[in-house]
Amino acid sequence: MSDLQIRHRDRHALREGYSPAVRRFEIASILAFAAVMVWLLVEIAPRMASSPFLALSALMLGFVAADFLSGCVHWMADTWGTPEWPLIGKALLRPFREHHVDEKEITRHDFVETNGNNCFISLPAATGAALLPDGTAWFFLAAMTFSLCLAIFGTNQFHKWAHMEEPPRYARVLQKASLILPPEHHAVHHAAPYAKYYCITVGWTNEALFRLRFFQTLERAITALTGLIPREDDIGKKAALVVAQQPPPPLPELPRIVLPIDLPDVRGRSAVKPE
Ligand SMILES: [Zn+2]
Ligand SMILES: [Zn+2]
Fold first, then answer.
1. Which end of the chain is more exposed for a tag (fewer CB within 10 A), N or C?
2. One-character DSSP codes across 15-40
């Protein structure tokens, strides 16, 4: 993919887009998110204690859903729009553009810059979940949303750890166990033209979405409907057109299971000689 002539935006201009107004917006988002999550936890805690298995399955489903949604948001922010858009462009799209130009920049972000965006994204869902009525199905949805929002809150932190040379030891243990985004797995996304493996919470859904051509199919449908070129702003029109017109990359082969041709006779146990 080195012949694509990718033209990223200017790194310094992208950094200057992080204005004091954006920072105030992030701080407000974090405070509001913390308050709503405490409210939601207070709402669901009694039922979690009385129905622990139901709660556990809802929490697990929320975690997987967060991975999938992290991919959807990342794909949208990588692929469409420009940092010039008001509010969303500066607050949400700019960091993704910057991340492809300088993938280590995220490791220099403090807590506010790392987590402000995702707090803002999760606010409507967490507020909606706290307002749900009583009932088993509503509780399941509320508990799932709690876990979803908590995992989305962790996503940028997990992403940051995946780019750090020396993340905290507990983060390394979780990465090795594939319970948060492992660095080697995420490196697949950072190979130009940055068009696969978008999920950045834990990465469990990446391979399935890639094999299903999930984002590629969405891109083709959106281009057919609107005429927009995916990732034009991120890598430049020329490279974006080449990528958009490329056939899908071949899928890596799954490991083959080779069965021995001469299967031992089941009845004749003497075929297997004890050592
Ligand atoms: Zn990306
Ligand atoms: Zn990254």
1. C
2. HHT--HHHHHHHHHHHHHHHHHHHHH
Residue tagged 């954006």 (tokens): 22
Determine the angle formed by the axes of helices 111-130 and 136-163, rounding to 10 degrees. Answer: 170
CA 64 – ligand 2 centroid, Å:
19
Ligand 2 centre from 96 Cα, in Å?
9
Distance 103 CA to ligand 1 centre (A): 9
7 phi and psi, to 5 degrees? -120, 95
Q: How many angstroms is it from 71 CA to the middle of ligand 1?
A: 9
Distance CA 219, CA 229 (A): 8
Task: Indicate the pTM of the whole model.
Answer: 0.80
CA distance 52 to 138: 15
Count of helix runs (H) and strand runs (E) in the chain: 13, 0
End-to-end CA distance of the chain: 53
Over residues 39-67, the pLDDT tens digits come to: 999 999 999 999 999 999 999 999 999 99
